[in-house]
Amino acid sequence: MTDDRAGSFTRRDFCKTAAAVSVAAVIPGGGVFAQGSDKFRVGVIGCGGRGTGAAIDCLNADPAVEIVALGDLVPDRVASSLKTLTGKFPGRVNVPASRCFTGFDNYLGVCSCPEVNLIVTAAPPGFRPIHLKAAIDAGKHVFMEKPVAVDPVGVRSVIATSELAAQKGLAIVAGTQRRHQQLYLEMMKRVQDGQIGEIVGAQCYWNQGDLWVKQREPNMTEIEWQCRNWLYFTWTSGDHIVEQHVHNLDVVHWAMGTLPKNVVGMGGRQVRVAQSLGGPRVIALTAQVRVLVAVAPADFRCGIDGLARRVRQALADDPFGGAVFVFRNRRGTAIKLLAYDGQGFWLCHKRLSQGRFRHWPTGQAGQTLVAHELAVLLAGGDWSAAAGAPVWRAVAA
Ligand SMILES: NC(=O)c1ccc[n+]([C@@H]2O[C@H](COP(=O)([O-])OP(=O)(O)OC[C@H]3O[C@@H](n4cnc5c(N)ncnc54)[C@H](O)[C@@H]3O)[C@@H](O)[C@H]2O)c1
Prior knowledge:
Blueprint: H1 9-26, E1 40-45, H2 49-61, E2 65-71, H3 75-88, E3 100-101, H4 106-111, E4 118-121, H5 128-137, E5 141-144, H6 152-168, E6 172-174, H7 182-192, H8 222-228, H9 234-237, H10 240-256, E7 291-294, H11 304-313, E8 324-328, E9 334-340, E10 345-351, E11 366-369, H12 371-378
Parallel strand pairs: 1-2, 1-4, 2-3, 4-5, 5-6, 7-8
Antiparallel strand pairs: 7-11, 8-9, 9-10
């Protein structure tokens, strides 16, 4: 667990005990020591917060553990992990430069080390099925962080690899640590004993604030930036339901003693968003967003290109500048919002089922509004009469 995850005290604290138990679950049993060796040697793939944390858990779990290989997409994460581990456990971290691996094939390097008995896979979950398969193919035991995959292809791959691991007598433990936490185990025993009766339904929630964002640096490629900010991309994280809520969904499956027969999904936002990722990924109306309303009506046959042209010509503004541009049609029955998010244009269209947008700025070609005024305008209200508290100081983007 990374220390820089805001508001994560409970999770972090929890991981200190629970994840240690998960990792330790792989360790006993006698089958994991290299033949003729009294050492238990661990390689890590994905040396971020949790990879380093899981390595620490391994070292705490048993004095016979040594960390012997580190792999990560980027060298700075290998270096910082190595520094943390060496600082905390002098003499038990034996990772020469020849066993530090970077680039997308770092996992092949870690898996090819004959010294390694157990691999911790804590890279972004989009890569997990590939990393797991390589580790099992190489004959290593695995502790893999949750989630184990982000799509059906990945899930099928993990199931096939688990069967292979069973045939080879290799252990795989996943980081759904509630399954190993004493409080949960005790509670689940009581639930399954029938102490609260038959379970016929369950609901679970996950409430959490913002997490970290890694800023783009001048020489960073797009792919590196996305992999460093993997939480915000569905191809790397699955989404926040898969990545985070998997823990609590797992508890429900556990309590019910079965998996669902049918699944129905409802909801809106599919990925995490963060303003500091470089702009809204959907049109998010926050205090930082510049809003410019076109006073004159627009021809609503215009799509993105036509409205972007209008931004240039009628509003003398840059359509790529990140502002939200607002247009109304001639009859006053519909509104269009145009915004560029750094990758492409968003175009939102609201058409009233009855009535008109009667309140609209007059005068100049364009009128700047703040977010709460736009919210009133979009609801068909009089933004000028809303009388919100005045903006005291502009919030920096
Ligand atoms: N069980 C838990 O409570 C818990 C807690 C935190 C995180 N996690 C899980 O651990 C995993 C990692 O999360 P984190 O918080 O450590 O994130 P992180 O961003 O701190 O670490 C991820 C690391 O993976 C590296 N990486 C990216 N692409 C890679 C690739 N292709 N190969 C190897 N390394 C690559 C990144 O450079 C980074 O160092 C996630 O699956 C997350 O869900 C589990």
